[in-house]
Amino acid sequence: MNLIIDMVKEHWFWGLITLTVLVWYSIITIYVAYRGAYDIKHMLRDLAAKHAKRQVHR
Amino acid sequence: MSHFNWLLDGSIVGFYLLATMAAGIMVRKYVDKVDDFIVAGREMNVYLGIASLAATEFGIVTCMYTAQAGYTRGFSGAIPGICNAIAMFLVGYTGFCVKKLRDSNVMTIPELFEKRFGKFVRWLAGVVIVLGGLLNMGVFLRVGGQFLVVCCGMNLQYLELAMTVLLIGVAAYTIMGGMLSVLVTDFLQFVVMSVGLLAVTFLVLNKVGWHTLTDTVQTHYGAGGFNPFVNPGLGWAFVLSNLLTNTAAVLTWQTSIARLLAAKDSKTGRKVYTGTAFFFVCRWIIPGIWGIAALALVTPDILRTIGLQFGEQDGSLFAMPYMLSQILPAGMMGVLVAAMLAADMSTDSSYMLTWGSVIYNDIMAPFRKTLWSDKKGLLWNRCIVAVIGMFLLFWGLWYKLEGNLWEYLQTTGTIYLSSMSILLIACCYWKRANNWGANAAIIVGAALPVLAISINMFIKEPVLDAAGIKTGEIGWAAKHIGDSFINIGTYVCVAIAMVAGSLLKPAPKPASLKGTNP
Predict the structure, then answer these.
(1) B51 and A36: CB-CB below 8 Å?
(2) Residues of A in contact with B184 (CB under 8 A)
């Protein structure tokens, strides 16, 4: 807690940017890890369907 | 003495490497067309795009130069990250250029230029993109190896061997699975890299403290360490130069554009841009904090010794890895090294693939008189990636970097960033733009940075300390003109060349209305 108070009090511009970076990056890591896995699943499913369709056409 | 424990930390790193390689190689079965190889069949969605773009744009080399910026310039060193984030958010939000680019369904930027400026401009654009990109990525491997040597306490004689093995592994999955492998491995690398970066930053802040960081910057750089405009070594020219470079990079940097073009549609591509924008602040602030912590904890004598070990006078590049090797406990070192390797692998794979795609799609275009089969196209793409890997290996091993790493990357990037960004804007929004202007812009954009690099290499001047003792050497152009002014001047000259060249070419006569319907 002292660290956060220090960051806001001393050189508040860089303190706030650093705090925002840490909070935003922590949240985005968890969110992108979850949603990105879902995207990969769908991408591979769609590619597999395309792949199968091409095999049939050959 | 590094805290890296080869059993504990080595196991963490080894497990991570095996898992990534396996994932990268497993998806190769989905690749049977050139489209799949270069743009992953255009099936990439938003969150995978964000993970991939963020992972690609953060390598060990990024971590090293951003930490160096923190060490040598304090918080002001993070300004390029803020410029980059602003540019990326605005471009993504407005769709400036990128909407038209993605909607055109091309695979590379030069392909779009052909539609407007003709075949020769496409080929020439491909050549400068590859020239600038390869010179830029040429230093990645060596700098990555130096990080591992300093951080893990690895014997210097194994640097080449370790980086060669890593590169072979990365090249293997990139050659097999192309963009698809790159996207899947990038995702894993993003997660590992982010966890490592955050964990280490929390630990550094906890151990060193915010008060010590700001005090250190104040002591070494005064107000200029917090405000770039009052820093005598930076000033408005540095900020403007970074705004220009970063806007151009957002519009034309091959690895970013590859994500835009692999996106399902332009809306998805723009969301990837706006969603990733703030990451560019993170990628400068986080290592910047590490660099400032190194400034507080590491004495210059130690850095001079480490620098000389690599044959370099300036040891500021090694401050951050040395500091981390001293304050991180065993276990945490494994997490850090895995994170850094993750960062490096995602960067190397993506750079090899995306610059390879320009060689295949644009430079080789005149040689493909007839339509090639997908099998032949895939084979060529794979060979090109392998050749780029070999180039990285050999250039990376013998090229010795002098001076500030970020300035080197900026100058080599400008070889194509300046001309390609101006061409893209003109191509999308200026009806009068034509091939005369495009050719002039490409030549001027490549010639000026190459001239500056050559002058700096061949005409050196001594750097003297306060007592008048020679401490190193600096290139003539860097000393008398300054890297920022060279950069700004290049953009101005390229814009003038584009406008003047286009206006000099006689405008096509309007089509006769005779015989047409009213």
Answers:
(1) yes
(2) 40
Helix (H, G, I), strand (E, B) or coil at B30: helix
Q: Are B168 and B345 in contact (CB under 8 A)?
A: no
The whole model's pTM is what?
A: 0.84
Indicate the length of chain B as a whole number: 518
d(CA B474, CA B480): 10
Helices (H), B399-508: 405-429, 435-458, 476-480, 483-504
Return d(Cα B24, Cα B173) in angstroms, integer. 5
Q: What is the largest CA-CA distance in chain B?
A: 86
Among chain B residues, CA nearest to A35: B47
Q: Which amino acid is at A21?
A: V
Measured from the Cβ of residue B346, the count of other Cβ atoms closer than 10 Å reads 32
Residues 6+ apart with CB under 8 A from B165: none
Q: Which residue has the higher pLDDT, B232 or B154?
A: B232
> Which of A25, A42, A50 lies nearest to residue B194, judging by beta carbons?
A25
Q: Are B468 and B415 in contact (CB under 8 A)?
A: no
Q: What is the residue-wise DSSP string for B364-401?
A: SGGG--SPPPHHHHHHHHHHHHHHHHHHHHHHHHH---
Which tens digits make up the pLDDT trace of B260-278? 888 888 999 999 999 889 9
Place of tokens 């097999």: B176
How many of the other CB atoms lie within 10 Å of CB of B239?
Answer: 18
Q: Closest CB to B30: pick one of A10, A17, A47.
A: A47
The answer to whether B128 and B359 have CB atoms below 8 angstroms apart is no
Q: What is the ipTM of this complex?
A: 0.88
